[in-house]
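Hi X.,

You mentioned you wanted examples for the new student's onboarding notes, showing what a folding record looks like when two proteins sit in one file. Here is a clean example. The first protein comes first, with its sequence line followed by its structure tokens.
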Amino acid sequence: MRTWVLALLLSLLAFSAVAETAPTAMAPAQDAHSLKEKLKALTARSTHAHSDNLIFDLPVTYNKKVSKWIAYYQGNGNKWFRNWLQRSYKYMPFIQQELKNSGLPLDLAYMVMIESGFAPNATSHADAVGPWQFIEPTGARYGLEKNWWLDERRDLKKSTGAAIRYLKDLYAEFGSWYLVAASYNMGESGLRRQIKKFGTKDYWTLIKLSALPPETQEYVPKILAAMLISKAPNLYGFRDLEKMDPLEYEVVLVPGGTDLDHVADFLGVTRKSLKDLNAELFLGYIPRQVEKHYIRVPKGAGRMVSNYVYSKNQKVAIE
């Protein structure tokens, strides 16, 4: 059964996406339609499955490397990947809408799943930070501010905007989404040298030539594995997922001295949830010497927070 389902899925992928490998003969349109309907019926068995999301807008290749990561996420990495899937319900719609608004493939959002598991405070051994794992120089190049109290690499909206600008620049140079991902992982200068040295712009050929670092050789297969599982999670054994609510918030301008813990206590929400919503404020507050700053609050709480911080500020001024 599992082999049959995989065969169906791969047949659908051959019809839906243009792989960055040798051309593959397409099935007749009526057969592809039938396959798609069967897959939708299968994924519909789980109310939490992404059953309406079987379209791929990145090229899809299925090979031993991709298969290896699918098996890993089903096995030893099951707990991590399940958490990522559950978080994806919260963050993926927001990221994909930003990508759509910018005319980029929506499936680039799976880079965030691999980079950070959607964790706003994720930090790598190379000091890359935030959902998109920007190192400080690249973040600064694309407009992300960092100082002693603020790190916009942790801000989902701002870091996504910076990532979009970066991805566009990479695609303009390399012309391949696989190479865009590779350069995002290893740095565009390093990839540029390897392309020139080996005379090819094919990601899989560069792997065969051992032209890419080991981590970069696995990076695109990880993304492809995440895409395949996430589109139809119950087919890969990820059932009964806890469906998080999509990210929604309001933006409020507050004065310096505003403490996120105090605002969370006032609203009756967890301190962690409000800090995650404002992860760029890694100290948890806005310094008093800062005149004002925008923060995010749960949807519907904007006016309450405005009144609260204004009255609190007035009280401090009187005292």
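Then the second protein repeats the pattern, sequence line and then tokens:
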Amino acid sequence: MSAQANSIIEARFSPKLKVYFWISGALILIATIAGILLLPFWVVLGGWWASRYHASLSCRLTERSVVIGKGVFFKQELTIPLDKIQDVSIHEGPLLNAMGLLRLRIETAGQRSAATGQSEADLVGVMDARTMRDQILTQRDRLAERGFAGAGPAPVEGAAGDGAVLGEIRDALLRIEARLGERG
């Protein structure tokens, strides 16, 4: 894992992940009758796709969020605010164990797909996955402590004049309250 200018930590993905993706795809195709017909294409093109997908994977922990990137043909970048994270878990399975890989799952409220049971933030093959999990949870807790210790939530990065806006809102509410008091 390496640090970047605007990130606390950046995950690296195991090179074994390419083989894992290729084998997983082949097993899925073998399990279906129609998939068996597609298996020769997967044998030829699966390695190319697995290498491209592996190269597209990224996971960065920033001050306030986890940013995940992935995709070969359709690129996806998912930003998960740390204050929305409920749990970060590690999952293992027979094929993952055989290859020495772990699945890191970042869970937020309502994020998991009812149809597949998968989270969009399932990351297979993160090197030092347990360390990454601990870093995410530590940063989430640190952010929560800062938010609770102050007069309100932690300020949004780049937001200017938040105090002035809140002051105006408070003053407007006090005026409304005073007028309601005059009527009653």
